[in-house]
Structure formats: C-alpha cells, structure tokens
Design brief:
The structure is a homodimer.
Chain A (H helix, E strand, L loop, with lengths): L6 E7 L12 E7 L8 E9 L3 H5 L19 E9 L9 E5 L5 E4 L4 H4 L2 E2 L16 H14 L6 E5 L4 H12 L3 E6 L2 H9 L5 E4 L5 H8 L4 E6 L3 H8 L2 E9 L20 H4 L3 E4 L9 H14 L6 E5 L4 H10 L5 E5 L3
Parallel strand pairs in A: 8-9, 8-11, 9-10, 11-12, 12-13, 14-15
Antiparallel strand pairs in A: 1-2, 3-4, 3-6, 3-15, 4-5, 5-7
Helix pairs in contact in A: 3-4, 3-9
C-alpha cells in the first residue's frame, strides 16, 4: 500500500486554447495519493500516449466524446503498474493499459473500471511502449480503419498520410501484409527513408520537399484505391484527384486543421467521389473495442514474425507534456509519441 | 420512309463555356435526314431531357463519361418515335427512349444501338414525359441512390436538396413509401408548398427565404440519417452539421457549383463524417442500368396507385434549348425540365 504521503503531480486543462496550445492553457497541481476503496485500483503511470486527438478534446465542441472540462486532469491513455489493489482481478505489479490521464497516479474506483478501459497487458507479447503503439489505440485505429472501412484487396494501392506516425506505420505495414502497394506521405527525408527501408512501404512522398501531386503521379501509376487520411487539408485534395473508381477514403483525422483559427478547409475536390463512385467515411476507434482482443492477437503475431515493426518516440518527464504534445503538430515526432512519466 | 428532303435541325457545342453558358457556346446547324442502313433506326425526337449533368458534359475534363466534343451535337436523352426502321425489334410508330441528342432526328446505326441505350417505352405505363422523369434517368437516380447507397430504414429522417426537381421529387416520395420522414430543401414558397401538399413530404425548407440551418433544426428534430445531395455548396455544410451517427450522404450532384469560375467550395464541415462515423458516397446512375427494368416496374406501380406523383416542366421548341437549360441553374424550372421538340 502506498503511503498517503505520496504526492500525485497532475496536469490540468486551465483554459481552452485558441490555435496552438501554449503552457498557459495548463495548470500544474499536486494532491495526495489516496488508497483505493473496495473494488478499486491505484495505478502508477509509466507511459502516456500523446495523440493528435487530444487537441480536439481541448475544444468545447460536440464530438465523439465530451471535451475535457476546465480544471480537469487532461485525458490520456497510458500504461501503468498497479501499486495498490482492492480488486482480485488486478494484483500489485500487474501492468495495465487504461485511461490514466496526465498525472503520476490514477485511482480508479470499481464503478469507473469499465469506463477507464482498463485491461492487463503482457510485457512478453510486446514492450510497454508497443502497447501504446501497434498493440494500442493507434494500432487498433489502423487495423480497423484499413480492414473494415478500407476493405483492401491484394494488388490495390493504399496511400496513407502521416505515414511515420503511430497510425500511419500500422496502416502501411498492414497494407503490405494484405498484398497491397503501400505509399506513404510524410515530412522530411529521414521519415520517408525509414518508412520505405525499415517498414517496407513501396514508396513515401516527402510533402515538405516536393509536390505531393507529382509524387502521387509517380508512385501510384494505377491510381489510388484506398486513402487513409490522418491530415486533411491540401493533401486530401491531391489524393482525391487520383482516386480510382469505387475508392475508399478513411477519414481518421485532419492534423493539418486542428490548430486552425480559420474555418476548416473542406476538400474542394470532393466531387471526385461522384465521378469515381467513391466513398469517404469517418471512423472512431472506440467503436471497435469489443474486437480489440482479436486484432491484438493478429498484430502480436506480426510483431513476433517481424512483418510488423514498431517505432516509438519517447519523451521523458510529466512536466514536458505541454511542449511534447506540440511535436505532433509540427511533425517533429518520429514514430508513436510517448511520454515517459516513471521508470 | 422519310424523304431525304426532310431537314434535321441540330444544336452543337461551338465553344466550351466559362461559367454560365451563353448562346455563343452553341451552333445551329441543319442537315438532310438519311435513311437507316440495315439494322438501324431513324427516330424523330419528341421530348428531350434537360439535366444539370449536361453542364458537366460541356467541360473538357475527365469525368464519368467523355465530354461532348466541339462541333458535336449536344448529348441529351430523349423520347422519340420511330419513323423508319431496318431493325425487326423496332417498328415505325414505336415510342423509344434513347440518347437522341439535341436535334430533331436521330439516326442510330445497328452498331450504335447498345451505346444509345435505346429501349421501347409503353405510353400506357406512363406518359411520354414521365418516361423522362420518374420512369427515366432522374427516377432511376433517385431510386438507386436512395435504395442502394442510402439504405433507408423506416423511421429515419431523409433530407433531399433540389426537392422539387426531377431527382428530388422521386427521392422524397420514395422515402415516404419506405416509412421515413422526408424533408426537402427547395427555392421559393410555391415549390416548397407543392412538395409538401402534393408530394406528401413532411416538410420543405425554402433556402431562398430563410436559414437552412434553422429549418433543419426545426424539421429534423431527430437529426439527419440520409442526405441526398443535388446541390453542394453551403447547404451541404449545413446538413453535415446535423447528421446522425452512421449517416449516409449520397453525392448525386452539386448544381450550386457547376457554373463556378472559382474553385469548387469543399464541405468545410466534412469532419462531421469522423465524429459521426458517417459516409459520403458518390453515384452515377448508369452503373445501375441492368436493374432499371426492375425499378421501372416498381415505380410504375407507385404511379398507378397514386403514391408517386410526377411533375414535368415542359418548354417547347428546339431553338429555345440554350435558354431553357439555364432554368436549371437559376432554379426557375418547377418539376422535371423537358424540352418538347415535336408533337
């Protein structure tokens, strides 16, 4: 049992950002760690997942989940270790994945266990950071978005933006496993090289150094059958201009638009959907939660046999959270961005 | 057999329009009527279908069918009567539907019969103008777009723009037959009243006299499950803001954008697709040609039992074609726009 003398450092949403979040949008608080009541568990945070979706949760807008309230601990998924338990399903020392929040300790009451999404993770199946990457929410997003909405067929061309990011690396590698041509879009030669050499994509277009339009023309000689969109903006329009008949576009995110203070840029080439009898469909990974276990088994097998690789970009220190988060929007992160909170 | 002294007046594309087409985009020619060769038929045009899609065919752009070439007779579907035949399947006096073009006579060689889409129409099943409306291409567009892409379920709310137009009237009436709530969007009180009183829509929003946003709020208290979009532009954005989870948006056209000289306005609310796990899908009616006969039987039954009504706006005279076409874009037509070429 932890002593109540232990202090829990937390990062809370202090004010809603306009445009890019700054340090002023956060407050840094500290409170004593409480013991769990009957049925509850106390989890010590080890790693937190930093995701583009967090930016959306900071806005006071109707979305697929309620916004984080002002004064609340910032929402975040993470991996931790159970340090106190009054629930027979969780033993001290168990590693778990759960909605821990941006804080050092997370006390989860019995009534909150389901909502926290807590489950035990097996460090023999994947490393703790892989459980936030290909075995975690980004991996599940790529898996179900590509499989269920994309419905890839061998020989088709799959394009994915944010290719070096957490979701993108899963999508491209899974596309290859499914027998497709995988073409990434990423920023900078280092990411593009890595996506091709390490992950085995057929090509990767550097949107920072050349024309995406020309890149698509060169690397998608048979057009685009599936586009997995993480970025929105102009890149979505360039891909719309290259889609094939009956193409499927998965709208997973629009990172280029999240810090906009101007209205979102709509895809002006959307009538390509009409010409090509194509489909654009949105997805939210939580809808597939009951099928995560099946997908995790499949992904773990690919990790083991080497067909799936996983790269995490680990930043250390809870207090670096405000700046670390911004790496996602500047494109500075290389691989799945993870905040290490404790060893 | 017609005498070759008969003259065939034709309207040809003379120049590609920039923005709204003018009379200068057309040339008016005349040539002798030729007799059909073996297997061919000569059809006298009675009625031509004027459709928003025609504007797209005038552009030199890749689309679902090739553009009309400069100097070619303008493409148009129509209803005519066979006046000479060297094909045992068609007798003089038969009424047929076919791609006749904007001309008084259409000579269809045997090798061109399939491509012309020719089929005999039964004037006892529907009037000749109904064969260009609910029993014709617009009816088929509404039928397959709503049924196949929309997949309506009883109790759902279906919104359709261009509600008083050819496709719109079919969509709303079919939605009612399928047990849905049908809400139209149209321009002006006369059209809106007619859509509600005559066609039986639950409501119709007048986009010319009020806020579409407020209208949707009032008339779609349970949100929007299906949106059949004929217009694009701001109305699409307003509906995107009101869609329900798993909504289906059928992209059939974007008449508000066809005469634009500026780039098409993309739907800036497209991320509502993500939040609502919704789908936006394009359709082209020609893909369903092999299923037209089944749909026509169903639609004819609805016409007969009074559940489906059909309104055509008939303009007379081949030479009025350039001005008549523009009624579609100003919203002046009331019902399916038809050009009467002969009695």
């Amino acid at each position: 049992m932890p002593s109540t003398a232990l202090s829990n450092h937390q990062i809370r949403l202090a004010a809603r950002p306009v445009g890019t979040p700054t340090r002023d949008n956060w407050s840094f608080t500290s409170e004593p760690v409480a013991d769990p009541d009957s049925g509850g568990v106390l989890v010590k945070t080890l790693y937190l997942s930093l995701d583009p979706a967090m930016r959306g949760w900071m806005n006071d807008a109707k979305s697929y989940i309620p916004p984080v309230g002002i004064g609340e601990v910032m929402r975040a998924g993470g991996i931790g270790v159970v340090v106190a338990s009054k629930n027979p399903a969780y033993a001290v020392g168990d590693h778990v994945s759960a909605g821990l929040g941006v804080q050092e300790y997370c006390l989860i009451a019995q009534s909150e266990l389901a909502r926290s999404g807590i489950f035990k993770v097996d460090a023999k199946v994947g490393t703790l950071t892989q459980w936030l990457n290909v075995l975690g929410m980004p991996g599940m997003t790529g898996y179900f978005g590509l499989s269920d909405i994309g419905q890839p067929k061998a020989g088709e061309t799959v394009v994915v933006s944010g290719a070096a990011g957490a979701v993108g690396q899963t999508v491209g590698q899974l596309a290859k496993i499914r027998g497709c041509r995988a073409v990434g879009i990423a920023g900078g030669p280092a990411k593009c090289d890595w996506v091709v050499r390490e992950l085995g994509f057929d090509a990767c277009i550097d949107y920072k150094s050349g024309s995406v339009r020309d890149g698509l023309k060169e690397h998608c000689p048979k057009g685009v059958d599936i586009y997995f969109d993480n970025v929105g903006g102009e890149i979505l329009d360039h891909v719309l201009a290259k889609i094939n008949r009956k193409a499927r576009i998965i709208i997973c995110g629009a990172i280029s638009q999240y810090n906009n203070t101007a209205p979102v840029q709509g895809p002006k080439n959307y009538l390509s959907l009409l010409v090509n009898r194509a489909r654009m469909e949105g997805m939210v990974v939580f809808d597939y939660a009951d099928r995560y276990p099946v997908a995790i088994v499949e992904m773990a097998a690919y990790l083991k046999d080497g067909r799936m690789k996983s790269k995490e970009d680990v930043v250390a220190g809870l207090d670096t959270f405000p700046e670390a988060l911004l790496k996602l929007f500047s494109g500075e992160n290389f691989g799945k961005l993870v905040l290490q909170v404790a060893n």
